[in-house]
Amino acid sequence: MSTKKRKENAGLKIKVAGGTLLAAGASAVAVCAAANHFFQVAVVRDDEKRRKRKRPQTQKNADRVLAAYNDEIQAGMEWLKKQETEMVLLESFDGLMLAADLLEAPEASGTIILSHGYRSTPEYNFACVAQYYHEKGFHLLFVHHRAHGKSEGKYITMGVKESRDLADWAQWTADRFGSRHDIFLNGISMGATAVLLASGFPLPQNVRGIIADCGFTSPYEIFCHILKKDYHLPKFPLLYATEHMAKKKAGFCFQEADTRRALKGNQIPVLFIHGGMDDFVPVSMSIENYKACNAEKMLFIVEEASHATSYMVDRDGHRRALDEFLKKYRKNEKTAEKQI
To answer: In what order do the strands lie in the sheet with 297-302?
Structure first.
């Protein structure tokens, strides 16, 4: 090959290599931009600007279905507004000031710690069931998760750090009301994942049971589900890039917490609840959690219910499941209960 030809070939290789590097660079920039958008939408606390951003379709669908029960929810919230509550504060393990609203019941011998869902509030998620619990003789502790409501925090960690916060709230409750006082943890959606993950931490001996309504198995798996269903995207590379960002900025990984791992070592009884038509958090996730749980357990599926609507769709069946669970594991039942 002539010297001239070799030089031409060398120049061509350099141009081709440069084009490849340029394309790779552009692709990497696009992935980083997409990961940052997904991180902002999924993890960063809501403010006025972020409330206007487009939500995943499955979340919008879930919100739309829940809105059909708005009258019932608003009636429950109006009842709550009329009650006298006490705001209590707790410093988290990583220095955030967390808040909860305590509604005490006369002659109560137990407390139910209420763990709300993703970008929601405890008053909204438990509006319909709060009066029922209260008149069953339970104090209610409406926890505001980190990066929600009255609590500090910039990042939502999808149950990872929230579960540690709940373990601290359980200890706070035991310290406030004594070691013989019954404690139950009740969570919805992300809050259900958090209460299940909390079973993997040391909890007070008087935590009698866990009620998990439509919880997902892990942040990683729920994000995989949303990426596939709403965005028609594979988990690689976007989810991995977003997880790297979450680890760097928010201090948690999507794959570090899994409810099934926590439940394998759990000894606290669990009532699993899910809607059979839930397309935000698939019912299969609660079934997996139920199978993984080595403690005493119950499973209640409302076939016609969508996400977080089981109580409204089948109030009688839901209450029967709650009655059976609470009666079985409550140690200090109130002597006289009002019926509602």
So the answer is: 86-91, 97-103, 138-144, 110-115, 182-188, 207-213, 270-275, 297-302
